[in-house]
Structures are given as structure tokens and as C-alpha cells.
Design goal:
about 120 residues; mainly beta; 4-stranded antiparallel beta sheet; about 0% helix; globular
Amino acid sequence: QVQLVESGGGLVQAGGSLRLSCAASGRTFRPYTVAWFRQAPGKEREFVARITWSRANTYYADSVKGRFTISRDDAKKTVYLQMNSLKPEDTAVYYCSAANVPSSYDYWGQGTQVTVSS
């Protein structure tokens, strides 16, 4: 059974940076892809970024392209989301999720709150 635990959220001023971590537990963890999603109050959950595990190919939502960077450490079974130039509209609960097959996100973390003040 795979468990995902996010950390690194917090309160930051606009223009600041945060790095989120998503640590996986379980004897084997080699998903097809791991993604970050976010959900702001009153809004639907939206895709932020994803990385394929074997080749580390990355994909980003247009709203974060050029500001966020997703990466992974295979040995630590951890995925990171470096968030720079944060904006108030980035305020949300950020979730990581893993998929063993494309677009089938079966494993979710509990989320970590990111608040960006103006």
C-alpha cells in the first residue's frame, strides 16, 4: 500500500518562494507519474504539474509555467514542487497524487496549505 505525505506549506508574501515535498512510503514505489494538484476555497481541484517517474519528463499548467519546478528523488521516493514568484492566486491546498497508469491517480496525500499574502 502506498501512502503519500505532503509537507512544506505555509504562509508567504507575494513574490516569495516555498518548496513542497511529497514523500511516499511502501515497499515498492515506481509509479508511472506523480502530480501536484491544488484546490482553492470554492473552486474545483486543478492540475499544477506532473513528472514521469522513469524519465522525469515534466508538464505544467500554464498558470505556473516558468515559476514552479517539479522534480523527484528516486532514492528518497520523494517529489518536490519548488514554487517561486508566488502570487495570491496560488493560495490553495496542494495535494500530491500518484498514478500507476496514465491519468489514473489512485493515491493521494492529505494536502498541505499554501497561503500567499498580498
